[in-house]
Amino acid sequence: MVIDLPPVSVSPAIKASAEIPLAGGASGRFYSFDIGGAGRDGKAPDHVAVRFPGPSVEPGGVPLVRIHSECLTGDVFASLRCDCGPQLQESLALFGAQGGYLLYLRQEGRGIGLVAKLKAYQLQIEQGLDTFEANRALGFRDDHRDYGIAARMLQALQVERVRLLTNNPDKAAGLEEHGIEVDAVLPTRRHENPHNHRYLHAKREQGHRL
Protein backbone atom coordinates (compact mmCIF):
# COMPACT_ATOMS: atom_id res chain seq x y z
CA MET A 1 0.00 0.00 0.00
CA VAL A 2 1.33 3.44 -0.98
CA ILE A 3 0.54 6.26 1.44
CA ASP A 4 0.32 9.74 -0.07
CA LEU A 5 1.81 12.02 2.62
CA PRO A 6 1.02 15.76 2.69
CA PRO A 7 3.80 17.98 1.36
CA VAL A 8 6.11 19.12 4.17
CA SER A 9 6.77 22.55 2.64
CA VAL A 10 3.30 23.96 3.22
CA SER A 11 1.72 25.48 6.32
CA PRO A 12 1.12 23.37 9.45
CA ALA A 13 -2.52 24.49 9.13
CA ILE A 14 -2.88 21.79 6.46
CA LYS A 15 -4.04 18.57 8.11
CA ALA A 16 -3.89 16.22 5.14
CA SER A 17 -3.35 16.20 1.39
CA ALA A 18 -3.85 13.69 -1.40
CA GLU A 19 -3.81 13.64 -5.21
CA ILE A 20 -7.14 12.33 -6.54
CA PRO A 21 -7.83 11.44 -10.20
CA LEU A 22 -11.08 12.94 -11.49
CA ALA A 23 -13.44 12.18 -14.34
CA GLY A 24 -12.31 13.41 -17.74
CA GLY A 25 -8.64 12.66 -17.16
CA ALA A 26 -7.93 15.56 -14.81
CA SER A 27 -6.63 15.29 -11.28
CA GLY A 28 -6.56 17.58 -8.27
CA ARG A 29 -4.66 17.71 -5.02
CA PHE A 30 -7.15 17.88 -2.16
CA TYR A 31 -6.24 19.63 1.10
CA SER A 32 -8.00 19.67 4.46
CA PHE A 33 -7.20 22.25 7.12
CA ASP A 34 -6.91 23.01 10.80
CA ILE A 35 -7.71 26.73 10.73
CA GLY A 36 -10.25 27.12 13.53
CA GLY A 37 -13.79 28.38 13.22
CA ALA A 38 -16.87 26.47 14.31
CA GLY A 39 -20.06 25.66 12.45
CA ARG A 40 -23.57 26.12 13.82
CA ASP A 41 -23.21 22.84 15.76
CA GLY A 42 -20.09 24.12 17.52
CA LYS A 43 -17.77 21.81 15.59
CA ALA A 44 -15.17 22.88 13.05
CA PRO A 45 -16.30 21.76 9.56
CA ASP A 46 -13.85 20.09 7.19
CA HIS A 47 -13.40 22.74 4.52
CA VAL A 48 -11.49 21.53 1.46
CA ALA A 49 -9.26 23.16 -1.15
CA VAL A 50 -8.46 21.50 -4.47
CA ARG A 51 -5.41 22.58 -6.44
CA PHE A 52 -5.66 21.98 -10.19
CA PRO A 53 -2.43 22.08 -12.22
CA GLY A 54 -2.15 24.62 -15.00
CA PRO A 55 -0.57 27.92 -16.01
CA SER A 56 -2.35 30.03 -13.40
CA VAL A 57 -0.69 28.13 -10.51
CA GLU A 58 2.80 28.09 -12.02
CA PRO A 59 5.51 30.43 -10.60
CA GLY A 60 4.76 34.00 -11.61
CA GLY A 61 1.08 33.32 -12.25
CA VAL A 62 -1.90 34.66 -10.33
CA PRO A 63 -4.13 31.66 -9.63
CA LEU A 64 -7.76 31.46 -10.58
CA VAL A 65 -9.80 30.84 -7.42
CA ARG A 66 -13.42 29.89 -6.85
CA ILE A 67 -14.93 30.05 -3.35
CA HIS A 68 -17.84 27.63 -3.52
CA SER A 69 -20.21 27.09 -0.61
CA GLU A 70 -21.42 23.54 -0.20
CA CYS A 71 -24.87 22.89 -1.70
CA LEU A 72 -25.89 19.26 -1.39
CA THR A 73 -29.09 19.71 -3.39
CA GLY A 74 -27.41 21.58 -6.23
CA ASP A 75 -23.90 20.10 -6.32
CA VAL A 76 -24.88 16.44 -5.88
CA PHE A 77 -28.52 16.15 -6.97
CA ALA A 78 -28.54 18.88 -9.67
CA SER A 79 -31.39 20.84 -8.08
CA LEU A 80 -32.96 23.41 -10.37
CA ARG A 81 -33.92 25.71 -7.48
CA CYS A 82 -30.46 27.33 -7.47
CA ASP A 83 -27.47 27.81 -9.77
CA CYS A 84 -24.88 26.18 -7.48
CA GLY A 85 -24.34 22.98 -9.45
CA PRO A 86 -23.87 24.69 -12.83
CA GLN A 87 -21.52 27.25 -11.28
CA LEU A 88 -19.42 24.45 -9.81
CA GLN A 89 -19.25 22.62 -13.14
CA GLU A 90 -18.36 25.83 -14.98
CA SER A 91 -15.55 26.42 -12.48
CA LEU A 92 -14.18 22.91 -12.86
CA ALA A 93 -14.05 23.33 -16.63
CA LEU A 94 -12.06 26.55 -16.25
CA PHE A 95 -9.69 24.92 -13.76
CA GLY A 96 -9.12 22.11 -16.22
CA ALA A 97 -7.95 24.65 -18.80
CA GLN A 98 -6.12 27.17 -16.60
CA GLY A 99 -5.41 25.49 -13.28
CA GLY A 100 -6.32 27.13 -10.01
CA TYR A 101 -7.86 26.52 -6.60
CA LEU A 102 -11.38 25.48 -5.70
CA LEU A 103 -12.17 26.34 -2.06
CA TYR A 104 -15.14 24.19 -1.05
CA LEU A 105 -16.58 25.68 2.14
CA ARG A 106 -18.87 23.56 4.30
CA GLN A 107 -21.33 26.44 4.73
CA GLU A 108 -24.58 24.97 3.41
CA GLY A 109 -27.46 27.35 2.79
CA ARG A 110 -25.36 30.51 3.24
CA GLY A 111 -24.18 29.09 6.53
CA ILE A 112 -27.54 28.11 8.10
CA GLY A 113 -27.15 24.37 7.47
CA LEU A 114 -29.05 21.81 5.41
CA VAL A 115 -32.05 21.35 7.75
CA ALA A 116 -32.71 25.09 7.96
CA LYS A 117 -32.23 25.43 4.20
CA LEU A 118 -34.92 22.84 3.56
CA LYS A 119 -37.24 24.70 5.95
CA ALA A 120 -36.52 27.89 4.01
CA TYR A 121 -37.37 26.10 0.76
CA GLN A 122 -40.70 25.05 2.26
CA LEU A 123 -41.49 28.66 3.20
CA GLN A 124 -40.67 29.72 -0.35
CA ILE A 125 -43.08 27.14 -1.72
CA GLU A 126 -45.90 27.70 0.78
CA GLN A 127 -45.71 31.47 1.31
CA GLY A 128 -44.05 32.73 -1.86
CA LEU A 129 -41.03 34.18 -0.04
CA ASP A 130 -37.73 34.64 -1.81
CA THR A 131 -34.58 32.98 -0.48
CA PHE A 132 -33.56 35.93 1.72
CA GLU A 133 -37.07 36.55 3.06
CA ALA A 134 -37.35 32.88 4.00
CA ASN A 135 -34.06 32.97 5.92
CA ARG A 136 -35.21 36.05 7.82
CA ALA A 137 -38.54 34.41 8.62
CA LEU A 138 -36.57 31.59 10.28
CA GLY A 139 -34.61 34.09 12.36
CA PHE A 140 -31.40 34.10 10.33
CA ARG A 141 -29.42 36.90 8.73
CA ASP A 142 -29.24 37.10 4.95
CA ASP A 143 -25.82 35.42 4.98
CA HIS A 144 -23.95 33.64 7.79
CA ARG A 145 -20.89 32.67 5.75
CA ASP A 146 -17.35 33.53 6.87
CA TYR A 147 -14.94 34.30 4.03
CA GLY A 148 -12.07 34.79 6.46
CA ILE A 149 -11.93 30.98 6.42
CA ALA A 150 -11.22 31.06 2.68
CA ALA A 151 -8.46 33.62 3.23
CA ARG A 152 -6.82 31.43 5.88
CA MET A 153 -6.99 28.44 3.54
CA LEU A 154 -5.23 30.40 0.81
CA GLN A 155 -2.59 31.66 3.23
CA ALA A 156 -1.96 28.09 4.37
CA LEU A 157 -1.38 27.24 0.70
CA GLN A 158 0.98 30.23 0.40
CA VAL A 159 -1.34 32.04 -2.00
CA GLU A 160 -1.46 35.80 -1.45
CA ARG A 161 -2.87 37.07 -4.78
CA VAL A 162 -5.80 35.67 -6.76
CA ARG A 163 -8.13 36.14 -9.68
CA LEU A 164 -11.52 35.43 -8.16
CA LEU A 165 -14.32 33.69 -10.05
CA THR A 166 -17.56 34.99 -8.54
CA ASN A 167 -20.66 37.16 -8.98
CA ASN A 168 -20.76 37.94 -5.24
CA PRO A 169 -18.85 41.11 -4.24
CA ASP A 170 -18.85 39.98 -0.59
CA LYS A 171 -16.39 37.22 -1.44
CA ALA A 172 -13.79 39.61 -2.85
CA ALA A 173 -14.29 42.00 0.06
CA GLY A 174 -13.95 39.14 2.55
CA LEU A 175 -10.65 37.99 1.06
CA GLU A 176 -9.20 41.49 0.92
CA GLU A 177 -10.29 42.21 4.49
CA HIS A 178 -8.20 39.23 5.59
CA GLY A 179 -5.06 40.02 3.61
CA ILE A 180 -5.58 38.35 0.22
CA GLU A 181 -5.03 40.61 -2.80
CA VAL A 182 -7.75 40.24 -5.45
CA ASP A 183 -6.23 41.19 -8.81
CA ALA A 184 -9.43 40.63 -10.79
CA VAL A 185 -13.02 39.49 -10.31
CA LEU A 186 -14.28 37.26 -13.12
CA PRO A 187 -18.03 36.61 -13.31
CA THR A 188 -19.62 33.23 -13.80
CA ARG A 189 -22.30 32.81 -16.44
CA ARG A 190 -25.99 33.32 -15.59
CA HIS A 191 -27.37 29.78 -15.20
CA GLU A 192 -31.10 30.47 -15.33
CA ASN A 193 -34.03 28.07 -15.64
CA PRO A 194 -37.79 28.36 -14.95
CA HIS A 195 -37.31 27.12 -11.37
CA ASN A 196 -34.55 29.48 -10.23
CA HIS A 197 -35.62 32.72 -11.93
CA ARG A 198 -36.85 34.33 -8.69
CA TYR A 199 -33.82 33.07 -6.79
CA LEU A 200 -31.46 34.77 -9.26
CA HIS A 201 -33.56 37.94 -9.19
CA ALA A 202 -33.30 38.03 -5.37
CA LYS A 203 -29.52 37.58 -5.54
CA ARG A 204 -29.25 40.44 -8.04
CA GLU A 205 -31.32 42.64 -5.73
CA GLN A 206 -28.80 41.83 -2.99
CA GLY A 207 -25.89 43.07 -5.09
CA HIS A 208 -24.76 39.98 -7.01
CA ARG A 209 -23.44 40.88 -10.47
CA LEU A 210 -25.78 38.92 -12.69
TrEMBL record:
It catalyses: GTP + 4 H2O = 2,5-diamino-6-hydroxy-4-(5-phosphoribosylamino)-pyrimidine + formate + 2 phosphate + 3 H(+). Residues 46-184 form the GTP cyclohydrolase II domain. The keyword Nucleotidyltransferase does not apply. Its EC number is 3.5.4.25. Pathway: Cofactor biosynthesis; riboflavin biosynthesis; 5-amino-6-(D-ribitylamino)uracil from GTP: step 1/4. Keywords: GTP-binding, Hydrolase, Metal-binding, Nucleotide-binding, Riboflavin biosynthesis, Zinc. It is an enzyme of class 3 (hydrolase). Its cofactor is Zn(2+). It comes from the Bacteria. GO terms for molecular function: GTP cyclohydrolase II activity. This is GTP cyclohydrolase II. The gene is ribA.
